[in-house]
Specification:
Length: 162
């Protein structure tokens, strides 16, 4: 597992821009992660943070020689939410430098159709944060680090009906 993690971290580090004065060694690497997306990321009060993206963020920060700061957010699954706009709002507002587990689809990195978006709920959000809209930027991907094909699982009743 550690070998895979190191390989993924190295791939992302190789695609990251060169360090600047703003990215000094004492400046934390800020990564936004969904608080309830197991097995990729999980953040529950009283329990240690866990998941693949947590371990990957720790490896990236260590590889860059920077402390890690995870900005936990909650993405709601309803018809009014858009994970692409929420990730863009978090990045455009400077809440983080990276968003983990971003679904890389054909239309997820196009110039957003909206000029602004609301921030998702995040740790430390104020009442004003929940109300305001953030001007959106254009996102840039790293190298993909997870391949996750989807499939349909068929039960015995399907074969009996065929």
């Amino acid at each position: 597992m550690k070998a895979w993690l190191a390989a993924y971290a190295a791939a992302i580090l190789l695609t990251a821009p060169a360090a600047t004065a703003a990215n000094a060694a004492d400046d934390p690497l800020s990564v936004c992660l969904d608080e309830d997306l197991p097995p990729l990321s999980a953040h529950h009060r009283g329990k240690p943070d866990s998941g693949f993206d947590v371990a990957l963020a720790q490896a990236l920060a260590e590889g860059l020689g920077r402390p890690l700061r995870i900005q936990w957010f909650e993405s709601k699954l309803d018809e009014d939410s858009s994970p692409a706009l929420e990730a863009n709002a978090l990045l455009s507002d400077g809440r983080c430098s990276l968003v983990g587990s971003y679904a890389l689809t054909r239309d997820s990195l196009v110039v957003p159709g909206a000029k602004t978006a609301k921030l998702p709920d995040f740790d430390g959000a104020t009442r004003d944060d929940r109300r305001r809209r953030v001007p959106l930027g254009v996102l840039a991907p790293s190298q993909p680090y997870i391949y996750s094909p989807l499939t349909i699982v068929l039960g015995p009743a399907f074969f009996d009906a065929v």
